[in-house]
Amino acid sequence: MDNKPGFSPMPIVKIENLDKYFGHLHVLKNVSLEVPERQVICLIGRSGSGKSTLLRCINFLEEPSHGTIEVDGIKVAGGEKGREHRQLIHDVRLKTGMVFQEFNLFPHMTVLENVIEGPVIVKGMDRKKAIELAEQNLDSVGLLFKKDEYPNRLSGGQKQRVAIARALTMEPRVMLFDEPTSALDPELIGEVLNVMKKVALEGMTMIVVTHEMGFAREVADRVIVMAEGELVEDNKPEQIFNAPKDPRTEALINRYRTGAN
Amino acid sequence: MTAIAKGQDAPKSQAELLYEIQLRKERQFRGNVAITWVLLVLFLLLVFSSLEIRSSNGTTELAIWTFEKVTKDGREILEKTRTGIATFSIGLPNEGITLNTILVDKNFIAQNFTFIARGIYWTIRISLFSIALATILALLAALARLSSVPFVYALSTFYVSLIRGTPLYLQILFFFLALPQLSINLSGEMAGVLALGLNYGAYMSEIFRAGIASVGKGQREAALAIGMTQGQTMRRIVLPQALRFAIPPVGNDFIAMTKDSALVAATGFVHELTWNAQKVGRAQFRSLEALIIAALFYWSMTILLSYVQNKIETRLSKGER
Ligand SMILES: Nc1ncnc2c1ncn2[C@@H]1O[C@H](COP(=O)(O)OP(=O)(O)OP(=O)(O)O)[C@@H](O)[C@H]1O
Ligand SMILES: [Mg+2]
Q1: What does the DSSP 8-state code read for residue A18?
Q2: Do A107 and B224 touch (CB under 8 A)?
Q3: CA distances (Å), B308 to each of B207, B208, B252, B305, in order?
Q4: How many other CB atoms are found less than 10 A from the CB of residue B83?
Q5: What is the DSSP letter of B101?
Q6: Residue A196's pLDDT band (cuts 50, 70, 90)
Q7: Cβ contact (<8 Å) for A170 and B226?
Q8: Can you spell out the DSSP letters for B151-203?
Q9: Residue B317: which of A152, A103, A110, A146 has the closest Cα?
Q10: CB B246 within 8 A of CB B316
């Protein structure tokens, strides 16, 4: 069991007492979570339970209202302002890669340009070196041959694989996926999940919001169930799927079983 | 679902037939439009042809009117002269009808065509400088409009409100006539470019604002997520896409600008198309001819620029995205 407190000496992501309000709406309620290195976590829950918000708080696309986020030793308190705070957020973002449901590739750049943009512009990496790294990652998602295409000439699955390569080329310590296959035609989901599995096997720490229970079962080390802004169950996949403890987990699993989601 | 899909697929040949009919109709329509255009141009030429058709007493006469130099009392003057071209032995009885078209002075046109044409240089020059200034101002105003700093936001809305609330003509006069009172003396061109640039900048800021708004939130988030600063995100991700969006409407405004540049003639110191036409027209009491020449130049320029713009637009829409 990886999720026993104190078991792993060095969590990559450590969330403590996180609260998030949208106006009066209390979306995350005192959430705490530790993610040890190399662990793959699947975050599941019904729509509106706060999965995306939690994920987006980790790289500060949403500013937490209270609580702290720590990524690879960089600790940021939510709800602060000022230059120092912005610098910390920037540092955290360099340690996190994010993959969005809608891919969000830059349409005015080729695939290769998309992938080297971060390393060159943000990290100031030498262009040649960035291209080398980018081509390596494009190759590993199977899309090196598309490097000079513009995104509008790619299928949804290919776009998402490029998005993964783009995030990986920043050499993050943790990858965040927010429903990476939800915008895809069913026949394209597999290729993206396969790439994600490969990334997991290479030892990347991953937090994945997903409705793909097959992936959760097969790849996740831990499945966390969210409901109404709280983490209601956190366990190994077989436990979650075969012996759910919380009635809300059970209801959710049953919904997936009957095919409704 | 599959049943519906099949239902749509079955009568495919009929759909293709309908499509062909549709295409033929469209082609026919465009053909007829083109023919009508040619007829309208011919009609316009006829209206200004100086021809006269007189049908009376059973004969029809075709004649042309011209201005001819004659010497009267030792002075050379221009006199309207009628020259017969052809006579036909059929026609209306008695008084009949006389159809007269507008008499234009072809000598004047021949002599002053190049003088007026030289105004094109200034028209284009002013338009180019003004559109450049307008684009910069519009971009700044659009960015300021997105600012969360009250002062910056207010500056943008104030500028747009002030400019849109006053006539362009007045703005040009203001720069040229009112500023010297404050010991600011601008050349006619400078005053014109400043006024046109400021004016179009205010209107065009809306284009850039829409362009920036057209770039989805996801684009910004993706840029921020890889660690870009707000500034980098704006410069490298949002603006390039917004500018692409803005190119067609900015083209429209450039075309409009070439015509509004005529107002700069009011300063009397910029020898662009309209000023040149006015000058020679007034001096020789030939404003009809002079203004027609200028109008034709503007019109041709507009057609040409629209054509170029169309080409650019199709190129852009074929491109990325
Ligand atoms: N920017 C926002 N402003 C206001 N409310 C928001 C905002 N973003 C999310 N919410 C609200 O916060 C709650 C949690 O949203 P969140 O997107 O995190 O849910 P989710 O679990 O990701 O759902 P889904 O499965 O539909 O993506 C919802 O009630 C949502 O309406
Ligand atoms: Mg979500």
Answers
A1: E
A2: no
A3: 20, 21, 11, 5
A4: 10
A5: -
A6: very high
A7: yes
A8: HHHHHHHHHHHHHHTS-HHHHHHIIIIIGGGGT----HHHHHHHHHHHHHHHH
A9: A152
A10: no
- The number of the ligand nearest the C-alpha atom of A28 reads 1
How many whole angstroms from B219 Cα to the centroid of ligand 1? Answer: 19
Ligand nearest to the CA of A226: 1
Collect all residues of chain A within an 8 Å Cβ-Cβ radius of residue B244: 108
Model confidence pLDDT, tens digit, residues B52-111: 999 998 899 999 999 888 888 888 888 889 999 999 999 888 888 999 999 999 889 999
- The band of B14, judged by pLDDT with boundaries at 50, 70 and 90, is confident
pLDDT digits (tens, 9 = 90+) for B146-176: 889 999 999 999 999 999 999 999 999 999 9
Which residues have CB under 6 Å of ligand 1? A 22, 25, 27, 45, 47-53
Give the C-alpha distances (Å, rounded to integers) separating B157 from B145, B151, B238, B259, B266: 7, 10, 22, 27, 29
Which of B212, B224, B226, B247 to substitute to test the interface with A, most A CBs within 10 Å?
A: B226
Strands A40-45 and A222-227 come out as parallel
The confidence score (pLDDT) of residue B79 equals 87
CA distance A250 to chain B (A): 32
The reported pLDDT for the residue numbered A3 is 45
Long-range contacts of B115-118 (CB under 8 A, 24+ apart): B115/B276, B115/B280, B116/B273, B116/B276, B116/B277, B116/B280, B116/B290, B116/B293, B116/B294, B116/B297, B117/B293, B117/B297, B118/B271, B118/B276
Tell me the two tokens of residue B69.
Answer: 């130099």
Q: Which residues of chain A lie closer than 8 angstroms to B241, CB-CB? A: 107-108
**Chain A residue at shortest CA distance from B317:** A152
Q: How far apart are CA A192 and CA A196, in angstroms?
A: 6
**Residue type, position B241, single letter:** Q
User: Do residues A64 and A18 touch, judged by C-beta distance below 8 A?
Assistant: yes
* The pLDDT of residue A260: 53
Q: What is the pLDDT of residues A137-158, one digit of tens each?
A: 999 999 999 999 999 999 999 9
CB B112 within 8 A of CB B293: yes
> What separation in Å is there between the alpha carbon of A229 and the centre of ligand 1?
10
Count CB neighbours of A121 within 10 A: 19
The percent helix, strand, coil of chain A (3-state, each to 5) is: 40, 25, 35
Task: Write the DSSP assignment of A68-125 as a string of letters.
Answer: EEEETTEEEETT--SHHHHHHHHHHHHHEEEE-TT----TTS-HHHHHHHIIIIIS--
